[in-house]
Model the fold of this input.
Amino acid sequence: MSAAPPGAPPPGPRVERPAPTIRVRHLSHRFGSLDVLRDVTFDVGPGEIFGFIGPNGAGKTTTIRVMATLLEPMAGRVEIDGVDVTIDPAAVRRSIGYMPDHAGVYDRITVREYLEFFADAFRVPSLDVVDAVLELTDLGKIQDRIVATMSKGMKQRLQLGRILLHDPKVLILDEPASDLDPRARIEIRDLLLELRSLGKTIFLSSHILTELSDVCTSIGILEKGRLVVAGPIGEIAARLEAVRAAQAHGHAPPRHAAAPAGYAAPAAHVHDAPPPYEPGAPPPGAAAGPLPAAAPPPGYGPHPPHAAAPASAGQAAAYPALSPLLSRRKVKVRVLGEPEAAAYLLRGGPGIADVAIVAGAVHVGYIGNDVKIAEIVQHLVRSGIGVIGVEPERNELERIFLEVTQGEVQ
Ligand SMILES: Nc1ncnc2c1ncn2[C@@H]1O[C@H](COP(=O)(O)OP(=O)(O)O)[C@@H](O)[C@H]1O
Ligand SMILES: [Mg+2]
Done:
Protein backbone atom coordinates (compact mmCIF):
# COMPACT_ATOMS: atom_id res chain seq x y z
CA MET A 1 0.00 0.00 0.00
CA SER A 2 1.41 3.38 -0.93
CA ALA A 3 1.28 6.43 1.27
CA ALA A 4 -1.25 9.13 0.48
CA PRO A 5 0.25 11.86 -1.69
CA PRO A 6 0.96 15.13 0.03
CA GLY A 7 -2.06 17.34 0.17
CA ALA A 8 -4.50 14.43 -0.23
CA PRO A 9 -7.68 14.75 1.82
CA PRO A 10 -7.60 12.82 5.09
CA PRO A 11 -9.10 9.36 4.95
CA GLY A 12 -12.64 9.00 6.21
CA PRO A 13 -16.18 8.78 4.95
CA ARG A 14 -16.68 11.10 2.03
CA VAL A 15 -19.75 11.47 -0.08
CA GLU A 16 -18.75 11.45 -3.73
CA ARG A 17 -20.84 13.82 -5.71
CA PRO A 18 -21.16 13.46 -9.43
CA ALA A 19 -19.55 16.25 -11.42
CA PRO A 20 -22.04 19.05 -12.00
CA THR A 21 -23.70 19.12 -15.40
CA ILE A 22 -23.83 22.89 -15.35
CA ARG A 23 -21.06 24.76 -13.59
CA VAL A 24 -21.22 28.54 -13.32
CA ARG A 25 -18.31 30.34 -11.67
CA HIS A 26 -18.00 34.05 -10.87
CA LEU A 27 -20.09 35.03 -13.86
CA SER A 28 -20.26 38.79 -14.38
CA HIS A 29 -21.60 40.84 -17.23
CA ARG A 30 -22.48 44.44 -17.90
CA PHE A 31 -24.40 46.26 -20.60
CA GLY A 32 -23.01 49.79 -20.82
CA SER A 33 -22.75 51.01 -17.27
CA LEU A 34 -25.29 48.51 -15.97
CA ASP A 35 -23.97 45.57 -13.96
CA VAL A 36 -26.37 42.89 -15.11
CA LEU A 37 -24.63 39.90 -13.53
CA ARG A 38 -22.36 40.14 -10.52
CA ASP A 39 -20.22 37.22 -9.52
CA VAL A 40 -22.85 34.54 -10.05
CA THR A 41 -21.73 31.06 -8.96
CA PHE A 42 -23.76 27.86 -8.79
CA ASP A 43 -23.88 24.23 -9.89
CA VAL A 44 -26.62 22.08 -11.33
CA GLY A 45 -26.13 18.36 -10.78
CA PRO A 46 -27.01 15.66 -13.30
CA GLY A 47 -30.70 14.79 -13.46
CA GLU A 48 -31.83 17.88 -11.60
CA ILE A 49 -34.63 20.21 -12.52
CA PHE A 50 -33.17 23.55 -11.51
CA GLY A 51 -35.50 26.55 -11.24
CA PHE A 52 -33.75 29.87 -11.86
CA ILE A 53 -36.07 32.35 -10.24
CA GLY A 54 -36.02 36.12 -10.18
CA PRO A 55 -38.04 39.18 -11.10
CA ASN A 56 -37.98 40.65 -14.58
CA GLY A 57 -34.66 42.35 -15.24
CA ALA A 58 -32.77 40.25 -12.68
CA GLY A 59 -30.40 38.85 -15.31
CA LYS A 60 -31.87 35.39 -15.94
CA THR A 61 -31.93 35.63 -19.74
CA THR A 62 -28.40 37.07 -19.77
CA THR A 63 -27.15 34.07 -17.75
CA ILE A 64 -29.01 31.70 -20.04
CA ARG A 65 -27.62 33.34 -23.17
CA VAL A 66 -24.11 32.78 -21.83
CA MET A 67 -24.96 29.14 -21.08
CA ALA A 68 -26.38 28.75 -24.59
CA THR A 69 -23.13 30.14 -26.13
CA LEU A 70 -24.93 33.20 -27.53
CA LEU A 71 -23.20 35.76 -25.36
CA GLU A 72 -19.60 35.81 -24.25
CA PRO A 73 -19.30 36.62 -20.56
CA MET A 74 -17.13 39.56 -19.49
CA ALA A 75 -15.83 37.63 -16.50
CA GLY A 76 -16.21 34.18 -15.07
CA ARG A 77 -16.80 30.85 -16.72
CA VAL A 78 -19.57 28.45 -17.54
CA GLU A 79 -19.14 24.76 -18.27
CA ILE A 80 -21.82 22.49 -19.63
CA ASP A 81 -21.11 18.80 -19.17
CA GLY A 82 -17.48 19.65 -18.53
CA VAL A 83 -17.04 21.83 -21.62
CA ASP A 84 -16.33 25.55 -21.36
CA VAL A 85 -18.88 27.54 -23.37
CA THR A 86 -16.30 30.00 -24.65
CA ILE A 87 -13.65 27.40 -25.49
CA ASP A 88 -15.78 24.92 -27.44
CA PRO A 89 -19.20 26.42 -28.15
CA ALA A 90 -19.93 23.91 -30.94
CA ALA A 91 -19.58 20.97 -28.55
CA VAL A 92 -21.77 22.75 -26.01
CA ARG A 93 -24.45 23.33 -28.62
CA ARG A 94 -24.56 19.62 -29.38
CA SER A 95 -25.18 18.80 -25.74
CA ILE A 96 -27.86 21.40 -25.02
CA GLY A 97 -31.40 22.02 -26.14
CA TYR A 98 -32.09 25.72 -25.75
CA MET A 99 -35.55 27.21 -25.83
CA PRO A 100 -35.51 31.02 -25.81
CA ASP A 101 -38.28 33.09 -24.26
CA HIS A 102 -40.94 34.34 -26.65
CA ALA A 103 -39.55 32.21 -29.46
CA GLY A 104 -41.74 32.08 -32.51
CA VAL A 105 -42.57 29.03 -34.59
CA TYR A 106 -42.95 28.87 -38.35
CA ASP A 107 -46.67 29.21 -38.84
CA ARG A 108 -47.59 28.03 -42.30
CA ILE A 109 -46.37 24.44 -42.19
CA THR A 110 -47.67 21.38 -40.38
CA VAL A 111 -46.42 20.11 -37.05
CA ARG A 112 -44.68 17.18 -38.71
CA GLU A 113 -43.10 19.38 -41.40
CA TYR A 114 -41.84 21.72 -38.73
CA LEU A 115 -40.09 18.91 -36.84
CA GLU A 116 -38.77 17.28 -40.02
CA PHE A 117 -37.32 20.61 -41.12
CA PHE A 118 -35.39 21.02 -37.88
CA ALA A 119 -34.38 17.36 -37.76
CA ASP A 120 -32.82 17.93 -41.17
CA ALA A 121 -31.17 21.16 -40.05
CA PHE A 122 -29.71 19.40 -37.01
CA ARG A 123 -28.53 16.53 -39.27
CA VAL A 124 -30.50 14.00 -37.27
CA PRO A 125 -29.72 10.70 -39.03
CA SER A 126 -33.20 9.14 -38.96
CA LEU A 127 -36.64 10.65 -39.27
CA ASP A 128 -37.85 8.04 -36.78
CA VAL A 129 -36.73 10.57 -34.25
CA VAL A 130 -39.56 12.84 -35.37
CA ASP A 131 -42.08 10.10 -34.57
CA ALA A 132 -40.51 9.58 -31.17
CA VAL A 133 -40.64 13.30 -30.42
CA LEU A 134 -44.25 13.55 -31.66
CA GLU A 135 -45.17 10.79 -29.25
CA LEU A 136 -43.23 12.20 -26.33
CA THR A 137 -44.75 15.66 -26.70
CA ASP A 138 -48.19 14.17 -27.36
CA LEU A 139 -48.47 16.00 -30.66
CA GLY A 140 -48.89 12.85 -32.79
CA LYS A 141 -52.64 13.31 -33.11
CA ILE A 142 -52.24 16.78 -34.59
CA GLN A 143 -49.12 16.18 -36.67
CA ASP A 144 -50.87 17.28 -39.86
CA ARG A 145 -52.25 20.46 -38.39
CA ILE A 146 -50.96 23.83 -39.56
CA VAL A 147 -48.86 25.36 -36.78
CA ALA A 148 -50.72 28.70 -37.02
CA THR A 149 -53.92 27.06 -35.79
CA MET A 150 -52.38 25.63 -32.62
CA SER A 151 -52.89 26.96 -29.10
CA LYS A 152 -50.02 28.61 -27.22
CA GLY A 153 -49.56 25.54 -25.06
CA MET A 154 -49.30 23.27 -28.10
CA LYS A 155 -46.82 25.63 -29.76
CA GLN A 156 -44.76 25.55 -26.60
CA ARG A 157 -44.73 21.75 -26.67
CA LEU A 158 -43.73 21.89 -30.32
CA GLN A 159 -40.81 24.13 -29.36
CA LEU A 160 -39.80 21.63 -26.71
CA GLY A 161 -40.09 18.91 -29.33
CA ARG A 162 -37.78 20.86 -31.63
CA ILE A 163 -35.01 21.07 -29.03
CA LEU A 164 -35.28 17.35 -28.26
CA LEU A 165 -34.56 16.21 -31.81
CA HIS A 166 -30.80 15.91 -31.36
CA ASP A 167 -31.29 14.16 -28.02
CA PRO A 168 -29.43 16.70 -25.88
CA LYS A 169 -28.34 15.88 -22.36
CA VAL A 170 -29.20 19.30 -20.98
CA LEU A 171 -32.31 21.37 -21.57
CA ILE A 172 -32.13 25.11 -21.03
CA LEU A 173 -35.56 26.67 -21.04
CA ASP A 174 -36.09 30.41 -20.68
CA GLU A 175 -39.50 31.10 -19.10
CA PRO A 176 -41.09 27.96 -20.56
CA ALA A 177 -44.37 28.42 -18.74
CA SER A 178 -44.99 32.14 -19.03
CA ASP A 179 -48.16 33.08 -20.91
CA LEU A 180 -49.53 29.56 -20.64
CA ASP A 181 -52.97 28.77 -19.31
CA PRO A 182 -53.14 26.48 -16.28
CA ARG A 183 -53.83 23.33 -18.27
CA ALA A 184 -50.93 23.93 -20.65
CA ARG A 185 -48.68 24.65 -17.67
CA ILE A 186 -49.63 21.33 -16.09
CA GLU A 187 -48.92 19.58 -19.38
CA ILE A 188 -45.49 21.21 -19.67
CA ARG A 189 -44.76 20.28 -16.07
CA ASP A 190 -45.65 16.65 -16.72
CA LEU A 191 -43.50 16.67 -19.83
CA LEU A 192 -40.55 18.04 -17.85
CA LEU A 193 -40.94 15.25 -15.30
CA GLU A 194 -40.99 12.71 -18.09
CA LEU A 195 -37.86 14.23 -19.64
CA ARG A 196 -36.14 14.06 -16.30
CA SER A 197 -37.02 10.40 -16.02
CA LEU A 198 -35.31 9.97 -19.40
CA GLY A 199 -32.11 11.26 -17.82
CA LYS A 200 -32.14 14.91 -18.93
CA THR A 201 -30.85 17.70 -16.75
CA ILE A 202 -33.23 20.63 -16.95
CA PHE A 203 -32.50 24.28 -16.25
CA LEU A 204 -35.51 26.56 -16.44
CA SER A 205 -36.11 30.17 -15.57
CA SER A 206 -39.22 31.81 -14.26
CA HIS A 207 -40.22 35.19 -12.91
CA ILE A 208 -43.26 33.61 -11.33
CA LEU A 209 -42.23 31.85 -8.20
CA THR A 210 -44.81 29.13 -7.99
CA GLU A 211 -45.14 28.52 -11.70
CA LEU A 212 -43.12 25.32 -11.90
CA SER A 213 -41.79 25.13 -8.39
CA ASP A 214 -43.37 21.77 -7.70
CA VAL A 215 -41.18 20.07 -10.30
CA CYS A 216 -37.91 21.74 -9.32
CA THR A 217 -35.44 19.66 -7.34
CA SER A 218 -33.28 22.70 -6.68
CA ILE A 219 -33.42 26.43 -7.21
CA GLY A 220 -31.33 29.54 -7.57
CA ILE A 221 -32.78 32.93 -6.78
CA LEU A 222 -31.37 35.87 -8.68
CA GLU A 223 -31.93 39.45 -7.64
CA LYS A 224 -30.36 42.48 -9.30
CA GLY A 225 -27.77 40.31 -10.98
CA ARG A 226 -26.71 38.60 -7.76
CA LEU A 227 -27.45 35.05 -6.76
CA VAL A 228 -28.93 35.25 -3.29
CA VAL A 229 -29.41 31.55 -2.74
CA ALA A 230 -28.86 28.26 -4.57
CA GLY A 231 -29.27 24.61 -3.75
CA PRO A 232 -31.86 21.92 -3.11
CA ILE A 233 -35.08 23.42 -1.76
CA GLY A 234 -35.08 21.19 1.32
CA GLU A 235 -31.51 22.14 2.27
CA ILE A 236 -32.11 25.86 1.85
CA ALA A 237 -35.23 25.53 3.98
CA ALA A 238 -33.21 23.71 6.65
CA ARG A 239 -30.63 26.50 6.72
CA LEU A 240 -33.30 29.14 7.12
CA GLU A 241 -34.83 27.01 9.83
CA ALA A 242 -31.47 27.14 11.64
CA VAL A 243 -31.48 30.92 11.41
CA ARG A 244 -34.98 30.91 12.76
CA ALA A 245 -34.01 28.61 15.62
CA ALA A 246 -31.31 31.08 16.62
CA GLN A 247 -33.77 33.93 16.22
CA ALA A 248 -36.40 32.28 18.38
CA HIS A 249 -33.92 31.83 21.22
CA GLY A 250 -32.42 35.24 21.17
CA HIS A 251 -29.11 34.20 19.60
CA ALA A 252 -27.72 36.30 16.86
CA PRO A 253 -27.35 33.99 13.89
CA PRO A 254 -23.84 33.76 12.45
CA ARG A 255 -23.22 36.48 9.93
CA HIS A 256 -23.06 34.20 6.96
CA ALA A 257 -26.34 32.65 7.91
CA ALA A 258 -28.16 35.91 8.49
CA ALA A 259 -27.01 37.62 5.35
CA PRO A 260 -28.78 36.34 2.29
CA ALA A 261 -25.56 36.63 0.30
CA GLY A 262 -24.13 33.87 2.47
CA TYR A 263 -26.31 31.37 0.67
CA ALA A 264 -24.89 32.18 -2.69
CA ALA A 265 -22.19 29.58 -2.36
CA PRO A 266 -21.88 27.05 -5.14
CA ALA A 267 -24.39 24.28 -4.72
CA ALA A 268 -21.59 21.93 -3.72
CA HIS A 269 -20.88 24.11 -0.71
CA VAL A 270 -24.53 24.22 0.12
CA HIS A 271 -24.53 20.43 0.02
CA ASP A 272 -21.41 20.00 2.07
CA ALA A 273 -21.84 22.57 4.78
CA PRO A 274 -23.87 21.59 7.78
CA PRO A 275 -26.71 24.00 8.44
CA PRO A 276 -25.18 26.94 10.26
CA TYR A 277 -26.34 27.66 13.73
CA GLU A 278 -25.01 29.55 16.64
CA PRO A 279 -22.91 27.44 19.01
CA GLY A 280 -25.09 26.73 21.98
CA ALA A 281 -28.29 27.12 20.05
CA PRO A 282 -30.14 23.92 19.35
CA PRO A 283 -29.87 22.34 15.93
CA PRO A 284 -32.94 22.76 13.79
CA GLY A 285 -35.78 20.56 14.83
CA ALA A 286 -34.35 19.78 18.27
CA ALA A 287 -36.20 20.83 21.36
CA ALA A 288 -34.48 24.01 22.38
CA GLY A 289 -33.89 24.42 26.03
CA PRO A 290 -35.98 22.88 28.76
CA LEU A 291 -39.68 23.48 28.40
CA PRO A 292 -41.38 24.20 31.70
CA ALA A 293 -42.51 20.91 33.15
CA ALA A 294 -45.83 21.91 34.62
CA ALA A 295 -46.49 25.57 34.19
CA PRO A 296 -47.60 26.86 30.82
CA PRO A 297 -44.93 28.70 28.85
CA PRO A 298 -44.53 32.08 30.50
CA GLY A 299 -46.50 34.92 29.11
CA TYR A 300 -49.34 32.97 27.57
CA GLY A 301 -52.90 34.29 27.80
CA PRO A 302 -55.55 34.92 28.36
CA HIS A 303 -54.45 38.42 27.47
CA PRO A 304 -56.38 41.49 26.59
CA PRO A 305 -56.49 41.94 22.81
CA HIS A 306 -54.32 45.07 22.86
CA ALA A 307 -51.36 43.03 24.08
CA ALA A 308 -51.14 41.21 20.76
CA ALA A 309 -47.89 40.92 18.80
CA PRO A 310 -45.36 41.84 21.43
CA ALA A 311 -42.68 39.59 20.02
CA SER A 312 -41.86 40.98 16.64
CA ALA A 313 -40.54 44.47 17.27
CA GLY A 314 -37.51 43.54 19.37
CA GLN A 315 -36.55 40.77 17.01
CA ALA A 316 -36.67 43.13 14.07
CA ALA A 317 -33.82 45.16 15.55
CA ALA A 318 -31.75 42.07 16.28
CA TYR A 319 -32.15 40.62 12.79
CA PRO A 320 -32.08 43.37 10.25
CA ALA A 321 -31.43 40.89 7.46
CA LEU A 322 -34.57 38.95 8.10
CA SER A 323 -37.64 41.03 8.53
CA PRO A 324 -39.74 39.49 11.27
CA LEU A 325 -42.80 39.97 9.13
CA LEU A 326 -41.29 37.73 6.50
CA SER A 327 -40.16 35.08 8.94
CA ARG A 328 -43.63 34.89 10.38
CA ARG A 329 -45.14 31.48 9.91
CA LYS A 330 -48.58 30.05 10.23
CA VAL A 331 -50.04 26.96 11.76
CA LYS A 332 -53.63 25.76 11.56
CA VAL A 333 -54.89 24.20 14.76
CA ARG A 334 -58.14 22.25 15.00
CA VAL A 335 -59.68 21.72 18.39
CA LEU A 336 -62.61 19.88 19.92
CA GLY A 337 -65.55 22.16 20.58
CA GLU A 338 -65.62 25.88 19.93
CA PRO A 339 -62.40 27.32 18.51
CA GLU A 340 -62.98 30.69 20.21
CA ALA A 341 -61.68 29.42 23.55
CA ALA A 342 -58.41 28.27 21.96
CA ALA A 343 -58.04 31.53 20.08
CA TYR A 344 -58.58 33.46 23.30
CA LEU A 345 -55.91 31.46 25.11
CA LEU A 346 -53.34 32.01 22.39
CA ARG A 347 -53.87 35.68 21.60
CA GLY A 348 -51.05 37.84 22.86
CA GLY A 349 -48.85 34.91 23.88
CA PRO A 350 -45.09 35.15 23.37
CA GLY A 351 -44.19 34.96 19.73
CA ILE A 352 -47.83 34.90 18.66
CA ALA A 353 -48.37 37.52 16.00
CA ASP A 354 -52.01 36.99 15.11
CA VAL A 355 -54.81 34.56 15.73
CA ALA A 356 -57.88 34.15 13.58
CA ILE A 357 -60.65 31.62 13.21
CA VAL A 358 -61.12 30.46 9.65
CA ALA A 359 -63.60 27.75 8.71
CA GLY A 360 -63.66 26.36 12.25
CA ALA A 361 -59.87 26.16 12.59
CA VAL A 362 -57.61 28.45 14.59
CA HIS A 363 -55.03 30.05 12.31
CA VAL A 364 -52.05 31.15 14.35
CA GLY A 365 -49.35 33.42 12.95
CA TYR A 366 -46.17 33.08 14.99
CA ILE A 367 -42.53 34.04 15.00
CA GLY A 368 -40.15 31.18 15.58
CA ASN A 369 -39.53 27.61 14.61
CA ASP A 370 -41.22 24.26 15.16
CA VAL A 371 -40.61 24.47 18.90
CA LYS A 372 -43.16 27.27 18.97
CA ILE A 373 -45.76 24.94 17.47
CA ALA A 374 -45.05 22.42 20.23
CA GLU A 375 -45.48 25.17 22.82
CA ILE A 376 -48.79 26.24 21.34
CA VAL A 377 -50.14 22.69 21.45
CA GLN A 378 -48.82 22.16 24.97
CA HIS A 379 -50.45 25.34 26.19
CA LEU A 380 -53.82 24.42 24.72
CA VAL A 381 -53.77 20.87 26.07
CA ARG A 382 -52.76 22.04 29.53
CA SER A 383 -55.64 24.46 29.47
CA GLY A 384 -58.04 21.58 28.85
CA ILE A 385 -58.52 22.04 25.13
CA GLY A 386 -58.59 18.92 22.98
CA VAL A 387 -56.24 19.42 20.03
CA ILE A 388 -57.24 17.21 17.12
CA GLY A 389 -55.17 18.61 14.30
CA VAL A 390 -52.02 20.66 13.77
CA GLU A 391 -51.12 21.67 10.27
CA PRO A 392 -48.05 23.84 9.79
CA GLU A 393 -48.15 25.95 6.68
CA ARG A 394 -45.46 24.62 4.40
CA ASN A 395 -44.89 26.57 1.28
CA GLU A 396 -41.14 26.29 1.49
CA LEU A 397 -40.32 28.02 -1.72
CA GLU A 398 -42.47 31.07 -1.08
CA ARG A 399 -41.03 31.42 2.37
CA ILE A 400 -37.48 31.04 1.14
CA PHE A 401 -38.06 33.60 -1.55
CA LEU A 402 -39.49 36.19 0.80
CA GLU A 403 -36.75 35.65 3.32
CA VAL A 404 -33.76 35.88 1.05
CA THR A 405 -34.82 38.61 -1.35
CA GLN A 406 -35.23 42.29 -0.72
CA GLY A 407 -37.78 42.88 -3.47
CA GLU A 408 -35.32 44.82 -5.57
CA VAL A 409 -35.18 45.04 -9.33
CA GLN A 410 -32.70 47.08 -11.23
N1 LIG B 1 -28.61 43.52 -25.09
C1 LIG B 1 -28.82 44.31 -24.04
N2 LIG B 1 -28.38 45.57 -24.00
C2 LIG B 1 -28.56 46.37 -22.95
N3 LIG B 1 -29.18 45.98 -21.81
C3 LIG B 1 -29.66 44.73 -21.77
C4 LIG B 1 -29.50 43.83 -22.88
N4 LIG B 1 -30.04 42.64 -22.52
C5 LIG B 1 -30.54 42.78 -21.28
N5 LIG B 1 -30.29 44.04 -20.82
C6 LIG B 1 -30.64 44.54 -19.48
O1 LIG B 1 -30.06 43.67 -18.54
C7 LIG B 1 -30.92 43.48 -17.44
C8 LIG B 1 -31.17 42.00 -17.26
O2 LIG B 1 -31.93 41.53 -18.35
P1 LIG B 1 -32.33 40.02 -18.52
O3 LIG B 1 -31.11 39.17 -18.42
O4 LIG B 1 -33.15 39.92 -19.77
O5 LIG B 1 -33.22 39.78 -17.23
P2 LIG B 1 -34.40 38.72 -16.96
O6 LIG B 1 -34.34 37.64 -17.98
O7 LIG B 1 -34.15 38.25 -15.56
O8 LIG B 1 -35.69 39.48 -17.04
C9 LIG B 1 -32.17 44.30 -17.72
O9 LIG B 1 -32.03 45.52 -17.05
C10 LIG B 1 -32.13 44.47 -19.21
O10 LIG B 1 -32.77 45.68 -19.57
MG1 LIG C 1 -35.76 36.95 -19.31
Summary: The pocket of adenosine-5'-diphosphate (ligand 1) is lined by residues 31, 36, 54, 56-62, 410 (CB under 6 Å). Confidence is low (pLDDT under 50) at residues 253-299, 301-326. The radius of gyration is 25 Å. The first helix runs from residue 60 to 67.
